[in-house]
Backbone:
């Protein structure tokens, strides 16, 4: 699958890119996962955003790269999401691998922490993340903290 990959700071996103990422996050986290939560948490403005567009210029995956000290003492990757359209194609793996590399490029070497949905534990373990917390409830979904050293 041919993808256009973008990584931009929030202040450099176009209106269309911002709309696309908020729409995809809402489609998956709010509608598909039936989770009522406030996605706009006042962290986006301080983050870089990874956007994967397909050949039709539809946003099919995105993530936010969180600088150290904003969510955790460590740098972080959050709001990792793929559209149903591309699940099972490897796009999610590409997204996480690219996001890890971009975190290192932007913030330097060091551990990366994530708050992962429990069902995705093995997926993140395949990148070297290890569980670093007990299971906790976040907006009605079981989560765990994971860290990549």
Residues:
């Amino acid at each position: 699958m041919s993808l256009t990959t973008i990584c931009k700071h929030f202040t450099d996103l176009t209106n269309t890119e911002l709309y696309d990422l908020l729409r995809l996050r809402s489609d998956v986290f709010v509608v598909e996962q039936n989770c009522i939560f406030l996605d706009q948490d006042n962290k986006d403005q301080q983050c870089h955003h990874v956007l994967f567009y397909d050949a039709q210029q539809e946003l099919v995956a995105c993530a936010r790269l969180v600088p150290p000290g904003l969510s955790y003492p460590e740098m972080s990757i959050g709001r990792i999401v793929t559209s149903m359209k591309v699940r099972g194609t490897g796009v999610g793996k590409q997204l996480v691998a690219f996001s890890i590399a971009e975190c290192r490029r932007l913030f330097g070497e060091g551990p990366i922490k994530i708050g992962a949905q429990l069902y995705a534990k093995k997926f993140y373990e395949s990148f070297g993340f290890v569980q670093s917390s007990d299971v906790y409830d976040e907006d009605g979904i079981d989560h765990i903290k994971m860290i990549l050293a």
